[in-house]
From TrEMBL:
It comes from Leucocoprinus leucothites. It comes from the Eukaryota. This is Tyrosine--tRNA ligase. It is an enzyme of class 6 (ligase). It catalyses: tRNA(Tyr) + L-tyrosine + ATP = L-tyrosyl-tRNA(Tyr) + AMP + diphosphate + H(+). The lineage of its organism: Eukaryota, Fungi, Dikarya, Basidiomycota, Agaricomycotina. One of its GO terms (cellular component) is mitochondrion.
Amino acid sequence: MLSSSARYLTRACFSPLQCHKLVKYRLFHDVPLLDDLAYRGFIQDVTRPDALRQALQSKPQAVYSGVDPTAPSLHIGHLLPFMTLLHFQIRGHGIIPLIGGATGRVGDPSGRSTERTQADIQQIEENVIKLTESIQSFFGRALDYAQKKLETDGSPVLPLQNPSVLSNLVWHEKFSMLDFLRDVGKHVRVNTMLNRESVRARLESQQGLSFTEFTYQLLQAYDFYYLHKYHGCSIQVGGSDQWGNILAGLELIGRYETHSAAAVVEPSAFGLTTPLLTTSTGEKFGKSAGNAVWLDPKLTSIFDFYQYFLKVTDDDVEKYLKLFTLLPRATITELVQTHQAAPEKRIAQRWLAAEVTELVHKRDGVIRAETLTKTFFESDYEGLKAENVKSALEGDPRLVVLDPREIQGTPVAKLAAKYGLVASNSAAKNLIASRGLYLNNQVVPEAQYTVQNSSLIDGRVAILRAGKGKLLVIVAN
């Protein structure tokens, strides 16, 4: 009997090639896909590159990448494999995001020096369902972002199908141990398994390697075989630590195709790994103050998401523009050159933050994040719109919506005290006396000063600031 997460995923599971629509993406039209992926930094290793190049040019392929259900949402560390899938899709190939509903119960030893803590099965089930929604949301928005690039480029726009998300629990749950040993185990050579780097490293460690983790590569290898046979999948994409698991899958496909445990032919499938992504300081990409940067705005606010990319170093910004945006090469080159001429303006970072935020949170998210950034951190309020400010700060206690008559008829000092910017009227007056109270970044000159219509931003917004950090944003209704 299928589990709840498996049943959830089978409702719309079909081969991505069944809904294939070839899209000519003119931004990349003159650049072969593998060349563009290499230019952008997506490729660490690839099996039989010449044969893969020929396969990609001959007909549409299907490509998959897996996600462990260790959390209920995607984080920006998942952007690298999923942006790789997106590049395949906008070139007309089918994509399969795969969640490890089964393999997540075992735990992948790749890249780890110790064994994973055994996961709670109920938690995995819940994570599979939530991750499915997270992945569907990501690709829905990413495809909207890609369509806009097509429209901007003047290319013919064809519908891009939001991919189905699969869980490998759908097929692994049907296996008994005896069936798995007979149908899969007989095709695998133990000496080959022992030679995998992830296995050798753990065997040489003090803790060693459990039999459960040792067999993980068989489970993932069977995933590739199953997707190859039943979904026409010919390419697996994974991180550099997945190279051994990908090779195991290719070997299993080859052995099934020859029906022999003693010999294996070149399989009609390919593997591609992405590099381990670190910042210029050597830190793992995707962490902010030690915490993951999530794609779910309930876990990481859109503002904080935008700020993460706005704060990237000059050494990293070109790399991230290539990886996490669909900007064409010429635009990236021009942005980097402009940035290098005046790095203090952080032009490249602003573009990066806006593009990635639009990719993940749509254009409305960009407007919200840029509005908050301008309101909180910048001295130039030119271009701020009252409705954008009001929308961006909705639910924030620092936002107060007032009748225009109260705004212009009440001394600024009293507004600051009444709505919590300072503790009292006397505190406001003392702050004004020390030239520490600001209205729209101009010093409030005296205690009885009132807001003038001409000083309002967009005719409706007054931003009061006490010292460097405390803000009160007043918007006329």
